[in-house]
Amino acid sequence: MRKIGSLVLVGAGPGDPDLLTLKGLHAIQTADIILYDALVNSALLDHSDRAKKIFVGKRKGHHSYNQTEINTLAVGFAKEGNKVVRLKGGDVGIFARSAEEIEYAQLMGIETEMIPGISSYSGISAAHQIPLTRRCAYESLWITTGHTCDGSVSEDIALAAQSSATVIIFMGMTHLEEIIHAFKIHKPDHHPVAIVQNGTMSNERHIVSDLNHVVQDIADAGLGSPALIIVGNAVKDGVCKLMDQIKKKEVML
Would you say residue 244 has pLDDT above 60? Predict the structure, then answer.
């Protein structure tokens, strides 16, 4: 009787292939099947010569597979005795639909594992030297989606806007004007905002702005999805630190 395989969800990190964890690397190297998403850097697939690699990514307006099909595909390969790796951008626990895939696999009797990755919010902020928390200033972090499963703006946006937290918004570019409006109700026009497209990648683009100018700045720069929105004084502190370093280098030169 053929031994049933397993399903391992692996976080691929924010984009830079060097930000993959060692445990994630081992899972890729020992996989029989790799089902990978759109935000996964293709360079990570080069770590495996033996695995069959199948793109199951989803972009706005285009899905190569829907979620039910991905669930069925992963379980089907695992039942054939394969070690299946689901390679997901960022961290497997942050807006990655991991719950749906893990629950379905476990229901079908498949052994499962989750290997965390560096989330885009922490990887991108670190790359830009933005401290997401600071003692006695902004001491908490609010991570939310820009829209809910029905496509509407998340109600958490309005709540986050009232807090002193650094606010990280995934998948918010479609509703950017509504999101900024929610913050302007509770925050001054000069409240800092950073938007990073394709963070940590060679084709990254970003802007640093404020609530009063960010919508126009985005339009002028032509930034789009996928992008991460960071709102709060952490943005200003990160930029100031970076500018100080630049000035020091100029003085040394």
Answer: no
State the catalytic residues. 37, 58, 171
**Model's pTM, two decimal places?**
0.90
Classify 93 in phi/psi space as left (phi over 0), alpha (psi -120 to 50) or beta. Answer: alpha
Chain segment 147-177, per-residue pLDDT in tens = 888 888 999 999 999 999 999 999 999 999 9
Which DSSP helix (H) or strand (E) runs through 100?
Answer: helix 98-107
Taking only the tens place, the pLDDT of each residue in 62-108 is 667 899 999 999 999 999 999 999 999 999 999 999 999 999 999 99
* Percentage above 70 pLDDT, the chain: 91
- pLDDT for 253 equals 40
Contact 143, 94 (CB under 8 A): yes
* Tokens of residue 109, six digits: 């009797």
The torsion of the CA quartet 209, 212, 216, 218, rounded to 10 degrees, works out to 30
Is residue 28 within 8 A of residue 51, CB to CB? The reply is yes
Residues with Cβ within 8 Å of residue 94, at least 6 apart in sequence: 119, 120, 121, 143, 170
Residue 186, C-beta contacts closer than 8 angstroms, at least 6 positions apart: 161, 162
Cβ atoms of 44 and 90 closer than 8 Å = no
Q: What does the alpha-carbon distance between residue 58 and residue 16 come to, in Å, rounded to a whole number? A: 20
* Preceding peptide of 226 cis, ω within 30°: yes
